[in-house]
């Protein structure tokens, strides 16, 4: 897992694969606030796509931990504030719902401990297949969030 801010950090880019670097190039080249929520954009189909989401944050108990096998997630908050909980997949207990091949997602029971990442506009987190994460959670109070989720094929 990597967490940083899109507009102030460049150090992470040297650690990234060409596909991850391409996804970040796309994020920096577009006016993200102008993209309508609900869109799925093929950046380099089928290897890289962007999903534009808008929602209100939820109580953590209303959201499940998830992980992906085929795609890496880059979750970038465009506006609003949310908490994303993270735990290494090795520390997450049993699966709560079988792996969905079409959606590339598997859900897990709550781990004993997780790290809370408070995300604000411009902040991003990169979740690899070894990272369990629980997005969309309230940071301080329920808030409307717009977010871009880049899906980058492993």
Highlighted features:
six-stranded antiparallel β-sheet; three-stranded antiparallel β-sheet; 154 residues; 12 strands; mainly beta; Jelly Rolls
What features would you describe in this structure?
The protein is globular. The protein has 154 residues and is mainly beta. The strands form 3 sheets. Strands 1-10-5-12-3-2 form a 6-stranded antiparallel β-sheet, covered by helices on one side. Strands 4-8-7 form a 3-stranded antiparallel β-sheet, with no helix packed on it. It has one helix at residues 18-29; strands spanning 2-5, 40-44, 48-56, 65-67, 71-79, 81-88, 95-100, 105-108, 115-120, 123-127, 131-137, 144-153. The mean pLDDT is 93.
Q: Main sheet, how many strands, which sense, barrel?
A: 6 strands, antiparallel
Q: How many strands appear in the DSSP assignment?
A: 12
How many separate structural domains? Answer: 1
The average pLDDT score comes to: 93
The topology string of helices and strands comes to EHEEEEEEEEEEE
CATH topology: Jelly Rolls
- How many angstroms does the end-to-end distance come to? 14 Å
Unreliably modeled segments: none
Highest-level CATH class: Mainly Beta
Question: Under the CATH scheme, which architecture would be assigned?
Answer: Sandwich
Residues in helix, % = under 10%
**Lateral strand order in the biggest sheet:** 1-10-5-12-3-2
State which percent range the strand residues make up: over 45%
**Number of H/I helices:** 1
């Amino acid at each position: 897992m990597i967490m940083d801010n899109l507009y102030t950090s460049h150090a992470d880019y040297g650690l990234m694969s060409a596909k991850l670097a391409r996804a970040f190039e796309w994020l920096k080249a577009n006016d993200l606030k102008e993209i309508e929520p609900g869109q799925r954009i093929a950046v380099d189909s089928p290897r890289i796509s962007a999903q534009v989401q808008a929602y209100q944050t939820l109580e953590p108990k209303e959201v499940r931990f998830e992980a992906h096998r085929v795609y890496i997630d880059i979750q970038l908050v465009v506006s609003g504030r949310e908490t994303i909980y993270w735990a290494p997949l090795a520390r997450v207990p049993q699966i709560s719902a079988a792996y969905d091949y079409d959606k590339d997602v598997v859900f897990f029971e709550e781990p004993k401990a997780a790290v809370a990442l408070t995300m604000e506009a411009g902040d991003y987190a990169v979740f690899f297949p070894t990272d369990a994460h629980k997005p969309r959670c309230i940071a301080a109070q329920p808030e409307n969030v717009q977010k871009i989720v880049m899906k980058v094929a492993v």
